[in-house]
TrEMBL record:
Pfam families: mit_SMPDase. It is a single-pass membrane protein. It is found in: Membrane. The gene is SMPD4. The keyword Disulfide bond does not apply. This is Sphingomyelin phosphodiesterase 4. GO terms for biological process: ceramide biosynthetic process; glycerophospholipid catabolic process; sphingomyelin catabolic process.
Amino acid sequence: MAAPAMQQPSYLLANLKMDSTTKPFLQCCQELVKVIDDYPAKELHLIFPWLVESVFGSLDGVIVGWNLGFLQACSNRYNIVMDFLNPRYGPMMKLVYKLQAEEYKYEIPVSFLPNYSLGQHVSSLDSAYFVLVDTYLKYFLPTEGSVPPSPFTYKRGSVSPPAPRAPSVPFAGYGIHSTSLLKRHISHQPSVTADPAAQEIWRSEALLQVFVEMWLHHYSLEMYQKLQSPQVKLALLQYRLSMSSMLCQPLTPPGSGTLDTYQPFTPTEEHVLVVRLLVKHLHAFSCSLKPEQVSSSAHSHTSPLEELKRVVVHRFVQQKLYVFLQHCFGHWPLDASFRVVAWVSYIQPWRYTGEKTNPQTDQNKGVPEKWRFFVQENLLMYTKLFQGFLNRVVRTDLVNVKNALMVFRVAKVFAQPNLSEMIQKGEQLFLEPEHVLHHRQHRCFLSPGHGGSFLSARQPVVTDRVFRVKSHVYGLEGQDCQYKQMFGTELRGTVLKLIQIIDQARQTAKKISDQSAEVAANNSFMSWFGMGSPDLNYTFNGGEVDDTGACVKKTHEFLERSLDYLCQIFRLNAGQLSQLMATLGSGQDDGNSKQLPDCVQGENGLILTDLGRMQVINGLRRFEIAYQGDPELQPIRSYENAILVRLFFKISSLVNERFGGHMDALCSRPDFLGQLGRHYLASPEAAADGRRRSPETRLTAEGYRRPRLSLRMLASYRTLLMLLLLYLFGALFSFGLMSSTLLILTYFYLNGRGKCRFLPK
C-alpha cells in the first residue's frame, strides 16, 4: 500500500513502529486506540498504510501480520483482535471513517489485493479470519433492518457516498471494472434532503466489491484468453445491440468485471470455504427482500438497500463465480475435498430464505415456482457445471464412502421436484430460434430497476425471458458457444455410463464387505492353529483402508440412493434401469477381478487406457501385486521371530550350498522319493505356476529356482504354537518325538500345506 506522495517523516509513526517490536501486544493495541482517538487525520493518514501491513501482512511476505487465519478463540490475543477490528465500534474502522471524512485516499493496484500465499492454509472455520468475514458481511449486508449508520461523526460531517445513480438506470453499471475501485467522486455530493440510507449503502457496495475482487477474480489461462478475445466481446456486443434496440434494455458493456492482467491461481480448500461463506450470506441477504417490495409494480419508493438485495447476486457475483467454479472444476484434485466448492450452495438459493422447515418435508415439496427465473438466468450454473461434475465423477473412486456421499448429495439436489423441469424450460428458451424471437410482440425489458426480479411473482413476456437466458449464456460463453443440452442425447450417454460405474462400485463395495467379514472370522482364535490368513497386513482393493464394515454399508446405501435420484432426474424407468444392469452383468464374469485392467502395449510396457483407469479406481480389476523376488529375503514380518528367521536362513543356506546337487538329483527321480522331494523342496517359481511376473536377470532367477530347503516357516509364532500343541497332543497318546514328527509331516503332505519353506501368498 502506498501513501500519498511527498510525505514528511512522522515521529509518531516511528514511535509506533518501535513500540510494536518492544512492547506486549495488548499494550501496543491500547496505545493505537489512544492515538486514533487523540490525533487528527493529518497525522493519522501516515500511520494507516503501516497499520494495514501490521495487521494483514506485507505484500512481499516479510511482515507476517497478526495471523488472522491461524488465530483461534483459545488464544489470548483473540478477543483483543476481534475488538480492534470490529466493524461497529472497532478502532480500525474508526480510523477509516476519520480519514474518509477528511477526504484522504490511497491508491492500491487491484492486483495487490491479498490472496492466499502458496503453502499457507487457514486452520479452521472458527479462526479469526472467518469469524471477521462473517461479522463484516452481517454488519454491512444485513438480512434484517437497515445498514447501521456510521457510529463516528466528526466536525466535517459523516462520510459521503459516491455520486448517486440516475433513477432511470439503477445499478446498470454494477460489474463494470474501474481502476479506482473504491475512489469517491467528491465533486458529486448528494443533497441534504437525500435519503439517509443512500448515504450509507455505498459502504456495503464497496465492501462487496473488495471481497469479490479478492476471492473471485481468478481464472485459468484458457478462460482468461477467452474472456479477453475480441471476437467474443464483439459478438456479444452485436447481439446485445440488436436485442436492446428491440427490447428497450439499457446496454451493459460485455466482458464487464474482467481485469487487464492474468495471474496464475491454484485454489485451496480454505479459499473456497470463504467463497462459500460469501455465497451463502449473499443468498440470505437477497432472500430477505420484503414481500411488499417483491410484489410492488413500481420501485420509486424502494430503499437503496432493498434495491441492492434485488440485484446483488446477478450483478456482483454471477460472472466471476461462474469462471471461478469452472477453474475449480478443472483443477481441483479428484478426491472428496471437492465437496467444499461453493457450487451446490449457489444453485440452491431457496435454502437461505430464513424459513424453518423440515429437510425431509422440504425435499418432498420441491423448488418453489417463484425460483424459476433464477434457474433460467443461471442456466449454465446448472447445466454446464453439472456436465463438468459428471466428467469428474467418472474418474473418481466411488467405493470410497466420502466420494459416494458427494455424488449422493449432488444427485439429491438435482432430483428436487420441479428443478429438472425448470432447467429444461431454460434450455428451451435458449434454443428458441432467432427468427421466432424477432417476430414476437415488442415489449420493454424489465430490468431489476424497472420491476424485474428473481423473486417476482408476475409472469413476464416470453420475449424478455428468451433475451435474459440468451444474454446470460452469451455473456459467459460468447455467442459462438456450442451449447450442450443437459437433457440431450450426448449427455444422457454420459449419465448412463455413470450409472454403470455406480453399479460396479456398488458391487465392489459388497465384495469388500463380504471379504471383511470373512477375514474377521479367519483372524479369530482358531487362526492361531494355522487356519487364518498369514498376512496380517492384508488390505482390500478398490477402496481405502477405512472403507470396511460400517463405511462400506454406507457406501452401498449412498450409491443405491444416487441411482434412484439419477433415474428421477433423467426419467429412467425401472425397465430401462434393469436392462442397463443386465447388459452390464452380461459383460462380466466371476473371474473378472482376476483379469488385468484394460491396457495397450507401449514402448516401455503396458499403458492403462481410460477404461482401465476406471476399472482400477473402482476396484473392478487390478494388477496382481505380490513379492516376486527370493522368498528367503523378504522383510521380517510382525508375526515372525527375528532371531529365528536369521538363524534358520543361515542353516538353510549352509544345507543348500552343501547338498544342492543331491537335492537336484532327488527331485529328478520319477519314483515316490522324487515326488516327496519335489513336494518339500520344489522351487518357489514352480509353486507359482512357473509364471515370471517381474523383470529379473537370468542369473538371479536361476539362483532361487533350483530345489532348496527353506526353514523360515518355523520362525512364525503361529507355527511354533501349533507345533507345540500338536506335540503335546501326541504326548497325551504316548507318541514319541520321532513318531509325532512323522505324523505331522504326513498330515501336512496329505493336506497340501506342509512345505518346509516360506511361500508368499
